[in-house]
Design goal:
3 helices, 33% helix, globular, two-stranded antiparallel sheet, 101 residues, 4-stranded antiparallel sheet, alpha+beta, single chain, 6 strands
């Protein structure tokens, strides 16, 4: 089961490669994603990362939470609810039990 790290208060100029570089100082990064507004494509200021190990994730959170980046104070934490939301989403929006007539 993959645990994601949520990063908030990012500048809108931060892209996936910048986010990845910021976290690679603390361990291997498996994935980095910036949330984007569905209509404008602009950053929402929130990103998600998957680190190589949970220990690397703990180290990154400890080092980067409340740290300034580009004049913004970052909010960095485990996004534990991501698994629960995914399970609820599957339960609610999984197969819709529709029949073909």
């Amino acid at each position: 089961m993959t645990r994601l790290i949520q990063v908030g208060n990012l500048l809108d100029t931060v892209d996936e490669s910048i986010l990845r570089q910021l976290f690679e100082e603390h361990g291997a990064v498996r994935s980095a994603k910036i949330n984007r507004h569905f209509e404008t494509g602009r950053s929402t200021g929130v990103g998600f990362l998957e680190m190589g190990t949970e220990e690397a994730g703990d180290a990154a959170i400890a080092a980067l939470n409340h740290r300034q980046h580009g004049g913004q104070v970052l909010s960095v934490c485990w996004s534990d609810s991501s698994h629960e939301r995914r399970a609820v989403h599957q339960q609610m929006f999984g197969p819709m039990n529709m029949t073909n007539d």
